[in-house]
Amino acid sequence: MEFLIKRAALEDHQALAGVIESVWQQIERKDWFVADDPGYTYRTLQEGNGIGYKALLKDSGTLAGVFIVALPGRREENLGRDIGLSKEELGKVAHMESIAILPEYRGNGLQYSMMQAAEEELRKMGYRYLMCTVHPENVYSKNNVIRQGYEVVLTKEKYGGYLRDILLKKLS
What we know:
single chain, 30% helix
């Protein structure tokens, strides 16, 4: 199977939210993935507080997976606050937020491909800190981001009491 990674448009918000919800419904360990609700996905794209990506099957254009990058600015939810970044540096933080791959397309490196596409774009936009959270026991996702140069910098409760590793990758 061959895939294309494309930037999502605002009108893709329902499709993105649908994939996220579908994947969340199928996850056995619900505490491993805090799914964004459709309203959040729409607002993030509409207000420019994030970027959506979609992985499409090259031949048919079938949606195989989605990825949301949040651009938190200096808002309270910025993970850079957890590691003590200065106010100036907070504006250079991007959250590699929600990745959802439909089961029939897993094992094709889509998480990696979408994160790499986002990283390239974020670097050009001047972002310096890429951050994400992963449940400490979710070795699949954690190993995937560590393989891309992220490091666990802190473990703490986030998102209303869910234990998470906070990972960081510094761009040069």
